[in-house]
Amino acid sequence: MSRLLLTVRDLTKHFPLKGGLLGRRRGVVQAVDRVSFDVEEGETLGIVGESGCGKSTTARLLVRLVEPDAGEVTFDGAAVGRRIGLRELRRQVQMVFQDSYSSLNPRLSAAASIAYGPYVHGMARGPARERAHELLSAVGLEPRLFAGRYPHELSGGQRQRINIARALALGPRLVILDEAVSALDKSIGAQVLNLLGEIKERFHLTYVFISHDLNVVRYVSDRVMVMYLGKVVEIGAVETLYRRPRHPYTQALLSAMPSMDPSRRTLEAPLSGDPPNPINPPSGCRFRTRCPIAQDICAREEPPLLAAEDAGHAVACHMAAVPSGSSRAA
Q1: Which pTM was predicted?
Q2: SS3 category, 44
Q3: What does the pLDDT look like over 131-177, one tens digit per residue?
């Protein structure tokens, strides 16, 4: 039986916009709007979507680097902020960011950066230092060579390994990886991906993996969640979603994936135009202004995220719902 480690319900974050002489509120950016999903213990949930769709904001809301406006996050059955405090949450949930250099304190050596978290949480300096050396070895860096080096003395891949080791220092159960390999070249990125797979098994971790690279997400994920303009539009098992995407936006994303097969050339853009303004998103379905099969109901009603016929697969599209009022519903 699968066990839910993380449950997210109606998570919402709107950023106010202010301007003018008196700094009056001019509107809000609807970065994340009533997002709901679950993460099972031991799995990797991939999150994909265009820039500005709310992926990174969702990640920051999960670890409370940004406070949500509404919604509830439950970790291992305990509601965050009520039954589990932020200090304990951050022992259990850690995050690895895209920019490996700015994530590290330039005045701390590699070992000191890794040992800092355990030391702040009550571990003595000696054991914390030993923990740092163990984790350096775990991420493939020889402590004798790398423990005393500073961020400017390390390559991008080495710095990201330090960040991964630092995330593991408190013994978390869930690690959120926000574009963790996007800034690395392909060969180094592949090494880091393989490392993530190894340490997941070794430390019994659960991942939330955020990326714009659909091939990487397919490689590492068990399930995939697709976001568009602050909303979840589709979620399902990775192979099911990649083989038979149900939402038009997911179909467009996957059709844009590079292919080595010359018979699968992309001759025209799968999508036209830019995403709508998140300050004033379209009524109904937010994708309808770019959707090739949109109908009147798409402007009138927002499609709920409903289960498709495939087990564990859900899609927010009137075209896939039965009955929905759409003449094209499956």
Answers
A1: 0.90
A2: strand
A3: 999 999 999 999 999 999 999 999 999 999 999 999 999 999 999 99
Tell me, yes or no, whether 238 lies in a domain: no
Query: Is residue 67 a part of any domain in this protein?
Result: yes
Asked, for residue 235, whether it belongs to a domain, the answer is no
How far, in Å, CA of 252 to CA of 215, rounded?
Answer: 15
249 lies in some domain: no
Amino acid code (one letter) for 135: L
Q: CA distances (Å), 144 to each of 110, 137, 158, in order?
A: 11, 10, 14
Q: Is omega for the bond preceding 323 within 30 degrees of 0, making it cis?
A: yes
- Other CB atoms within 10 Å distance of the CB of residue 280: 11
Query: What's the structural domain count of the chain?
Result: 1
What average pLDDT does the segment 236-250 reach?
Answer: 94
195 burial (CB, 10 Å; 0-12 / 13-18 / 19+) is: middle
Contact 36, 11 (CB under 8 A): yes
Residue predicted with more confidence, 305 or 320? 305
Which range of residues forms the domain containing residue 218?
4-228
Whole-number Å distance between alpha carbons of 88 and 90 = 5
